[in-house]
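We now fix the convention by which a protein and its fold are recorded. These numbers are not coordinates but entries in a learned vocabulary of local backbone shapes. A record is reproduced here so that you can trace the correspondence yourselves:
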Amino acid sequence: MMATSRLCMPDGSGCALKSTPQPCPPPRVSLSSTLRARSVLSLALLLSLAATVTARAQPPYQPTAPTKSVVATDGQTDRFLLGGPWLYRADQGNVGVAQGWWQPTSSTDGWTPVSVPNAYNAGDLSSQSWYGYVGWYRRDFTLPTGAFPGYVPAAFQHWMLRFESVNYYATVWLNGRQIATHGGAFLPREVNLAGLHGGVNTLVVRVDDRTTANSLPPGPGSNWWNFGGILREVYLRAVAKVDLQQVQIRPLLPCPSCAATISEQALLRNVTDVPQTVQLHGSYGRVPIGFKRVTIGPHATTTVRASGHIARPRLWAPGNPALYKATLTLSDARGRPLGGYLDYSGIRSTTIRNGRLLLNGRLLHARGVDMQEQNVDSGGALSSGQTQALIGWARQLGATIIRTHYPVGPLMEELADRDGIMIWSEVPAFGIPNVTLRQPSTHARARQLLSKNVLENQNHPSILLWSIGNELPTPPSSAEATYIATATKLVHRLDPTRPVGIAIPTWGGEPCSSAYRPLDVIGGNEYFGLFNEGGGTTDDRSQLGPFLDSFHACYPKKALFVTEFGFDGNRDGPVEEYGTYQFQSNNLAYHFGVFASKPWLAGAMVQILQNFAAYPFYNGANPYPDASINGKGLVDLHGGLKPAFSVVSQAFHSTRQIGTRIQR
């Protein structure tokens, strides 16, 4: 319910509270919003005129080599950031393929300089922007010198292209040859760079963010603004003989005072036409991790495993996020280095005992925020500074947990690791209707996304649990029950060290469901005192306490969270008028008071940290909304702290979020 339950169709045809159709009044926009919109329009016109003048005087587009640098540290050590000058070309008529925009050419006519990450519809809150269209990116580059040691022959030198996130469908050409297609956002994709040559190479990426009912999240659009483009970093990765393709670093802690076992495994791929003999050497802090030497056949893969032990480990937890530097070096048969991997790892355990969630044997009463990786200026393509601002606000609040409806970016995960903030890591299986859930292909796509999330992000100690979805239909259908069972089993197999959860829409009167039995954790999205849900059962905020008691009675063996609750605030006014700062602050304080009376509650997360663009005509039931903006944030679009920020901060800091140790 990140864009909450009042769903108004972009064509203005109507809106609904959950599934109840109602007439949708036109959004009423405050005077300040109107003036702001006029200012933005005037600024846009000025910028357009300036861009026209500047374009005439722009220097010629110059190909450059990627740089040996990274935005997020964890990962392979031979990554080269493909930043620098990119080109962009809008294709709202979808004519680019037919007109050959993928073909290499020295001409830049029709292309505009941009930097990547980039959301091509940032700042555009029109219906067309939300539904999506096609945009093209181009990057002319030369290969970096000195990327490979001199003892690696040219025939054994290989390059990979890594996209951290593209929304949504991507087609990739290199030097006029199509080399890859893929769909899906929020997780990385790697491509073999076949067809490189000396001199200038031309990379072209066609991005199409027009999603369908079979996309994840289901389209068209989504319940947060559908920003299209290359939304996260792009890297070239140098591979000498054998690719250190995937690494798992898994600390195992049998009890909080026990010695820890560090279990590591790596997937190695021979990228050459001849057998290669290699060996990994690792360290975890000061503990060596020794692997056996292996010989890998031409273009074959193998998995190597090793372990180490730490007698008295320092444990990772909010307030004390101890990290160990973990390194791996891949060497050839003569002991010469070929590649490496770097990770900052944390040792901790997450267990559930009698429905109570424990971190390192201590009871969790986590408090935190939902967020969107989105900014009013750059859309869904955050800079490092914008990501740091989000984590900074969470830290200032005293939050110990954050959540989005999709896997957060690598930098966000690293900052959470270092700041001691846990992550509810969720895949965008969001609001999938039963008609789609009944399709086996839907289950396959969701499970594939889950697998990718676990395998890519499991090394981060900040990941508290894996969430298999948000707000699937309530009560669950048989198709949904099948998805829950199979998805939970899959994640438990991939990572037996973390619990598996789901976030569900909740209101009073819903019967208990056996469909949730396979899960370890259930999060309830509740909006008591706001939306008319469940036949009016959520209108009265005083019913929140009895509802939570019934929720606990239904699932006494599950660890329970409140994964969403929140209220709009965009103006001063009476405390009883929804949408005022006073109403927002008062109701948030009331909810925290109720949560404090439920010692079994594992955590609660406010919807939402910062205002964000939701979808056209969204109003969140606010009688005076800022059109299309979810105004439930504790921070406004431009970074201003609302009065509710201090209310929530006081509630967070007054809660003992990491409780007493439970004895066996």
About this structure: Residues 327 and 342 are 5 Å apart (CA to CA). The radius of gyration is 25 Å. The chain has three domains: 63-238, 242-345, 350-609+641-661. The longest helix spans residues 31-57.
